[in-house]
Amino acid sequence: MRTKLSNRNFLLTCQKIFIPFGHFASLCHQINLKTVVKGDDTKQYHMGYFRDDPQEPPCFVARNCAAIDCTITPMAENIFGAVNAYLDAMKGKCDPFQKMKVSKVQNSLKSWAKDNNFVLDVLSEAMKARNKKVVTKTFHNAGLVVPWNKKTELGYRKLIETDANTEECGGEQL
Fold it and tell me: Residue 133: left if φ>0, alpha if ψ -120 to 50, beta else—which one?
């Protein structure tokens, strides 16, 4: 059963979907980004694991400043690479004394990652492979990857929310 939502009901549905996930709830977020590192409250900066399919492992770690826009920027394949990228950016903005401290932390991170076989690349081979599978650009700029049927030229993935849950939030019958 399909439903048609008015603008008000769409917002209510989005609030029901987004707010329980405990990160900066914004209508420009998708459930696909699960926050794991929270930054400042002013910009609502956060990093999170991005998933194309909620049932699959994360594709990459991305960042967003929810108070500014809804752009999801891929940072690295894993949280260690994302923190390394963040430290790189931080070194360009801090004074020389802080830069020494940041470099020390970053060197420790790089050493640990090497010893434990973690990739710190900003654009890993897995991320490059995912970029080739993107079927369309999205408003958050991370792109959309869904199973694609070349014969019918259709891509589809079920939504997490059921029609019943959508109707419960005030959806109207088509």
Answer: alpha
